[in-house]
Amino acid sequence: MAKVAELQKFKGTRGQIRRQRVERIGAIIISLVLALWMLVNIIEAPSQFAQVAILGLRNGLLYAFIALGYTLVYGIIELINFAHGDLFMLSAVFSSFFITVWFNQDASNPAGWLTFILCLFAVMVFGAVINVLIERLAYRRLRHAPRLAPLITAVGMSFLLNFIGLKWNGSTPRQWPTVIPNFDIYVAGVRINMVTIMLFLVGIPLLLGLNYIVTKTKNGKAMRATAQDRDAAALMGINVNKTIAFTFAIGGAMAGAAGLFYQQAVGTTNYNLGFQLGLIAFTSAVLGGIGNLWGAVVGAMLIGFIQGLNDGLPIAFGQQWSQSVVFTILIIILVFKPAGLLGKVTTEKV
Amino acid sequence: MAKRPISNVTLSNRKWALGYTIAGALLFLIYQFLLPWNGLPDGIYRGVYQWMPPAAVNESLVYVIMALGLNIVVGYAGLLDLGYVAFWAIGGYCAGWFMSEFFYFLNIHFFGSVGLDRPGIHINFWMVLIIGGFVCALFGVLIGAPTLRLKSDYLALVTLGFGEIIPQVFFNGENFFGFNISNGTKGIVIVDPIPVGVKNLGPFDFGWKLLIFILLAAVMVFISLRLRRGRLGRAWLAIREDELAASMMGVPLMRTKLASYAVGAFAGGLGGVAFATHVNGVYAERFNFAISIFLLAMVVLGGMGNVWGVILGAFVLSWVNGTGLVAFGKTFNSQFGTNIDFASFTFLLFGLVLILMMLFRREGFLPESRLKLVLNEDELDTASEAKKAKK
């Protein structure tokens, strides 16, 4: 009995306890600094704060859709899919051409809204097909190779997609019209763009749908089983190849949706868009705990929020340090809490 | 037990020196004396200038220096570094700070190559090389110390993060908390010439500078080969092949990984200083992510872990990127009357190189025999199992 009590009291080795303590103190300090910074800004410019916060959350939603693809793929085959950001970029270019060139819509009217809905389906299929193709042609053959090989292949894939984007979109940024309602409304003196509201109206059901697929359907169950233990899943009669392809398809579809949202919200496309947004999205996935779906969403919202505040507030580093701020968050998270905010700590099995 | 013959080690280390010296001397003689010679047929002269101009050779050699450094991190220790450009930038700015008139309010001279009346810090090129190397090594340790505990792909990401942050610091460096540390996008222009005793080598002394770069590359080759043979190098290879097993055998993981970071970064510093003297300035926008990938592609293409493979990869890729593609495009377009922008195909080319090499020849063109076995472990296992089953 004494032994059981002792075991219950055991919270880890001395090193683990010290690490936990460092983590906790670090988290408290960082959140205090963040809170102080926000407080100062709220007092300084309250309406501006609300405005940039909303903009940041909108960007956070975009990041969330990209981050989901990273987190799904990492969860199942432990690969940082560097090409994912560029898939998002291609989707944005695809949406632009779909809406403006192929369907010739350039204003917010019923025809434009219909095209938007059509494009949402089309671009999700587009993203899914490309992502599955990438998996089939490159990553599948390297599944048993050393870690470095698929990672370098993913970087190569990213360059390849970049090239396609360069040829498709051109080497300079391109402006596109918005086809969903695009006017400002004022809530208590704070300007909110209709596009932001529309994105949340379309985006949140999509997220709920994804959650349903992963948690309730048979395919989702197979996905989670494969993520836990690929060999055991195969022994239980799950077609691992199909399940992994399905995961890539879902991730690609989410990136596709993000591409359309970005194109509609921001209105410009550029061939090197994917690299930066992909990295930010990956940071969000890591922040939330990689492999965890809601973690990715929460992390993305948080990153978007902080980045929005940094870019738009009077007392902040300003936009030219945007990248550095995001990567500093990434490094701090990886060093102090590699499992992320919502992730579980895993130990390496030997 | 019989003692291992030590003479073998030194012999194999001497053999390369001879070949390298001959190749280097040949290259130098061609570019320094044969090319400016009046008796040279005009066609050859123009051909060389179109396909292999002196500036391109020098640039390739700078890439060789840095690819050798990256090879120590990626090829020897097996740690994926996606932010190597950070070290290049730091090395470059070391040259910018210590060998130019950037700090115009100071007047520090230390065996510099310009007149004593010139403002700024002017330290001798050879010393700046060492300073740049050590500053980079220090940064390598600083970056590595908190992050090397991470799993391999997280580590890649953190290095990538640093590779983005450090160039951004220099890019926005015109007003870094009120100080001008890098002149921002304007860059630091006119770096001091290289003093070699009898004369100072300015930006257009390609031939002599070629000799200096060959020498620096030789230093890196020497360091790479010697370290690999030694205790540290064997520890790196052990970590690369199985980290867990290596640590069980008593290899101190952190210290060994940090050492690989430091040595790799040192080479980045050498390359950075060399590149600054090559282009005669430091420009913030040159340090971008594509360079990190470019260097990685050189290491992968040539053969991770094999010094000669990496040199080959660096030469081929930097030539293709710098002159080859453009020169080929010019010839192709004038031959067939087309108007294709070949320079825009670099993305396609590098992407394909990385993917195809990983799919079909993971070990590179000039593979290291040991790494070849590791990288194809899976196929070899299945092959030997099939053999057993046959029996």
Description:
The complex is a heterodimer of chains A (350) and B (391). The mean pLDDT of chain A is 85. In chain A, a hairpin with a 2-residue loop joins β2 and β3. In chain A, the strands form 2 sheets. A two-stranded antiparallel sheet of chain A has the order 1-4. A two-stranded antiparallel sheet of chain A has the order 2-3. Chain A is globular and about 75 Å long. Chain A is mostly helical and 350 residues long. In chain A, α7 packs across α8. Helix content of chain A is 74%, strand content 3%. Chain A has a single domain, classed as Orthogonal Bundle (ABC transporter involved in vitamin B12 uptake, BtuC), CATH 1.10.3470. Chain B has a domain of 234 residues. In chain B, α5 packs antiparallel against α10 and α11 packs across α12. Chain B contains 15 helices and 7 strands. In chain B, the strands form 3 sheets. Chain B has a 3-stranded mixed sheet with strand order 1-3-2. A two-stranded antiparallel sheet of chain B has the order 4-7. Helices cover 68% and strands 5% of the residues of chain B. The longest helix of chain B has 30 residues. Chain B has 391 residues and is mainly α. At the A-B interface, α6, α11 and α13 of A face α6, α11 and α13 of B.
